[in-house]
Amino acid sequence: MKTKYLYSLIAVLLVLIPITYLGIKITTSSNGSSQNQTIIFIHGYGSSASATNALATQTKQDLGIKNRLKVKINGQGQNDLQSSKLSSSGNIIQLEFTDKDTSEKNESKYIATVTKILKAKGISAISLVGHSMGSNVALRYLETDGYLTPQYPTVNKLVAIAGPFNTGIDQPDEIRKQFKNNSIDAETKLPKFQDGNFKFFYKNKDNLSPSLQILNIYGDIGDGTDGKISNFSSESLNLLIKKEQPYLQLKVTGSQVQHSQIRTNPRVTKQVSKFLSNP
Fold it and tell me: N or C end of the chain, less CB within 10 A?
């Protein structure tokens, strides 16, 4: 593999404590320079663009990106990006879904509208950073084959933070209780209990680009959860990607790791910006 890429990943591994690095897969990747990036931040369910402020601020500072904008998307998928000024030297874009009940499927469709505009404006490559449901929305976008055509920019990197990739949220109460003690089936090597998201992602994982670099971050308050999402659920992303996928999985412990706090944790925001800045 490329020596420079290996050294970059080793540097990442030595940075912050207490962050535990698990499930690391390293393969050769050629996603280009970290300069002039356009990075899209996606908030979680019922939240707003302000939820990604700390992440966007750290990334903007560390990568030297000057242009930062917030793009609002209404319940019909309409947005104000068309009239916004983009920079060829890089952009930080924080999405805000004004309809707090918009489904993951619709949000991924609305993101496709945004990325199509970006491509038309000359942005050929992007990275996606999602928190909570925003992680699921980003992955759904990446696994929907209709968005893999030249009409849309290439996605170089995905950062998932506190992603509920197999929570059982859409199941009856009895099933939700079972999800709390979910485990891997010895025969299938898959979770014994799977929610609708997991089934969709697993079915469509072959649509992922093998060169897509992924960073998966989640918190553990000491009981195997981040206070809302089980670590097992967040770790399920490892089962929803290709074997050759460049993948880094980080469990964060200590202070400020609860589900809604982790997105502003300085250790996490710094780790995200480092990952995005590595080539």
Answer: N
Please tell me the distance from the alpha carbon of residue 220 to that of residue 55, in angstroms, as a whole number: 19
**Residue written as token pair 């998201």:** 197
The Cα–Cα gap between 224 and 222 comes to 6
pTM for the full predicted model: 0.89
Q: What's the rounded Cα separation, in Å, for the pair 89 and 77? A: 27
Q: How is residue 241 written in tokens?
A: 């990607």
Among candidate residues 42, 46, 100, the one with its CA nearest the CA of residue 70? 42
Q: 25 with 114: CB under 8 angstroms? A: no
Beta-carbon count within 10 A of 67 CB:
16
- What CA–CA distance (Å, rounded) separates 26 from 6? 8
Model pLDDT for residues 228-275, shown as the tens digit of each residue: 999 999 999 999 999 899 999 999 999 999 999 999 999 999 999 999
Helix or strand holding residue 109 (H, E) = helix 104-120
